[in-house]
Amino acid sequence: MNIVQVLVNSLITSAELGLIAIGLSMTFSILRFANFAHVESAVLGAYLVYLFNVTLGWNFALSILVSTLILGTVGLALHRFIFRRFANSGDITPMIASLGLAITIRHGIQAIWGPQHVVYDYEVLPGNKIFGAFITDPQIWILITAVSAMVGFHCLLQYTRIGTAMRATAANVDLAQACSIDTQKVILLVWFIGTGFAALGGILIGWDTQVDPYLGFNLVIPIFCVVLIGGVGSVYGAIIGSLIVGFAQNFGLAFNYAPLINLFGLLDLGDRFDLPAAYKPAITYMAVVLILLIRPTGIIRKEVS
Amino acid sequence: MEQLIGFGIYLVTVTCIFAMLAMSLDLQVGACGLMNFGQVVFMMVGAYATAIAANAGINPYACIVISMAVAALLGVVMSLTVKNMGGTYWGILSLSMAELIRLVFLNERWLADGANGLSVLITIPYFSLTVVVSTLFVILILRVIWLSPFGRVIRMIREGDRLPLALGKNVLLFKLETMAIGGAIGGLGGSFYALLNSYISPDDGLPIETFIIWAMVVVGGRGNLLGVVAGTVFIQILFVGSRFLTHIVDIDAGVLAPLRFVLIGLLIMGVMMFRPQGLIPERKRVYRI
Amino acid sequence: MERLTLLRRALSGAIIALGVVGFASAAFSAAKGDPIKIGVIIGLTGPNAVAGNDGLAAMQLAVDEVNAAGGVMGRPLELIVEDNEGRPKAGVEAANKLADVDQVPVVIGGYSSAIALPVGLVLNKKKVVWVTDATTNKLKTVGPYLFNTAGIAEQAVALVDFAKADSGAKTLSGLFQNNPIGQDRAAVSEKRAKEVGVEWNHSMLYQVGAKDFRAELTKLLAAKPDAILTDIYDNDAQIIQRQLYEMGVTEMSMFYSYNLSAFATLPPKFTVGMKGLSYATSGARAASFNEKFREKFGRIYTDAWAPPFYDAVWIVATAMNLANSLDSTEIRNAMWPAAYRYNGVSGLGDKGFNRWGMQHADQNAQASFKDGKIQPYFVAGSANNILIFRYEDANGVPTADGIPLAEAPSEEELKALYSGN
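^ inputs. structure came back:
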């Protein structure tokens, strides 16, 4: 087994999950409900880039920029017309509303663009070879974006006034309001950044793989797993969660468990014990069970201050 | 005409089965505040228990009891992981446990023929009637539980662990009991599901089914049995009724099929927007201590 | 082997002749009057949406042709289409609706075995004919109203033989979907490999709809098998080929696919040298079907199970004409003679049902990709690229399952067949 390739694969998987998980974790902590439509915004963003880039023939970078901004605005509209009215309805009602919204967006996309996948105007090439492993340009961009997002969100939350306001709102809305923080403004900003950033994630994943209507549907559960493993509201948590899931998925499959099963030489039950690929999705769920049983609020505990 | 009545009976039966699953979830979420995102696992495990027991030649009624027992036991095991975990955290944990169980059924062909699933070749006399009567019985039991001291305590737990702990209640034990009862009802529904379809496969236990059951509970009105039943009927009408709507509109079936879901999604969202507590909300009682 | 080839030729000649007769007899004049309705249950949304839409398109093409050729009993044929949403529960709901409300005598559809099985059970109970393309071996056990117009998994052993003969492979690996068809393919391929003395590495069963197959592919390639068997569908095909290509696999000649058409719309460089079985380039009418599909829908289908859906509509229409009745049991009894006469676009066109209502033989063409197009492929030193699976005993005599029936089995025979259930 080419261990460098497994390492690179793990990093790419982690970055792809992390891209969407960071935004979801932040919005989750401030909006206080599980937004199932978050991932569908990612798919909508990816399809808008297809519209601009392929159908209308725009420049790829420009398409990404416009699509991200449009989705940010869509986020504002969703808040204004749908989710604002759930301010006092607890967390379950908006969650089910977001489920309805997710169904609507997903199938609306299929009604417009059809069930077949689409790809961007981009020539797929064999990856660049680094230390014997292949990594492609889109994958490098995904890594760069994920790292910059991590740094960017960290700086935003720690070193800016609005970031302080966001953290305060996440910790306690009433207290934040009492400290004359305009929580409405904070929530609008969170919708804009969160949805726009989800779109960017969807676009990059679509660029690296393909865009189809079920892109989000197949990602939504792993991404929620990542967010809750890491701890809601923590940027580092989302990063750590996606690293755990990404590495576990790739190394879990690559690893030969024979030494472990044979108790390091005590038994001789055979020399190959691999995890069947059919159990790959189980790795994520095992990680959730193990980690939450040990740390019930995720790896990074939310600071309540 | 006879066939139309047959379709009506089928719809009533399947709605009753899902009403049971929804009421079981409502006991966990609406009454006790346990955010179970793995609810469908009770149905799947119940259905598989019936299928495996039936193929081993066990009496159909005994199969139903076995299903309830197995699912109740699973409920107990799941409740052991709750501890003091926050709502959504345990939600994703329960979803993970449900998916792990489904993956075992999917991948272990020796256990239940893997993805091919199992056929269930037994029936019971007056099946639909049995399902309807069982549903009424479940409603009765849950109503009694709701009004009982036990029901008052779990509703207290819903609002937070602190008060019941201060009153000296063993919160974990109450959660365990709630999950056991919820599991048993879910297992009953699952057993009936297997008997209705004569078949069960891992695809019947996909997470999407859990979210549809969630929609039934929340759209109907969590914490209100009548509401939950109404929600089940509403969602069932959305999914089945919209099939008839598609005959009226004359557009390509490949476009119509996703548009049907757009309608379903919008209506779920619409109910939530205009009736945030559900179609028939919970009636809050005031207790004087 | 020599004897078999002769048998094949003789049989396929006869089938083509019969097919022409069957075709000509249907060609009256355009259909008039109230439409005759038959049901369709297929996945138009959910994980099988691409295949479902391809299958539906193929059926609509067949319906148009049936109606142009005189329809059913002089009346036009019409489809009532229900979406199975990729959920067994929705499929069963649709089956109950079609049988009880629309009261159709025949329903076509399926694709996903986990849905085709419960739907088949419901429709059999209600004595409605269910014609499906699903592929799990379990379909045989459902009941006498179930027919299958595509080969079931146990019949598709040809790919192992093809890969061995073509590459001289000593070790094989598999990459299949983790669902009924994929699990059956894995089991059947592994069994066949052992029979012909090839070492079976492992089967990678992947999750349908996932976006990241790099872990599976890295492991698949690391085992260094001589050849890899695949069974990939729908939207997964592009991602898997792309991720292989990005990992430096720019030449795909070690890949043998059960479902070559899944790659038909991909950039040519993703499929360089890839080989496999083609279900729709072998029959006499296959080429014209492909052409007609492209003409009507402006695209090519990417699912190998679209042609047998087209055949299903034609067989049902022929059966209804033969039965000259809308009674489902009479139509069922006419399904055997209808399929026996009909010359289809899938396989070699020979669609005869055996006593179970399954295909009596599975016929595929060896094919490979050249410049992104599927071409017939001949193993070095062989002039034949048609692979036929038949149920036969050690002496090459067809067993009962390998005989296409020209007439329906009697009620007693059918009862005896399914009495084991």
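The longest strand of chain A covers residues 128-130. The two ends of chain A are 48 Å apart (CA to CA).
thumbs up if we can close this ticket
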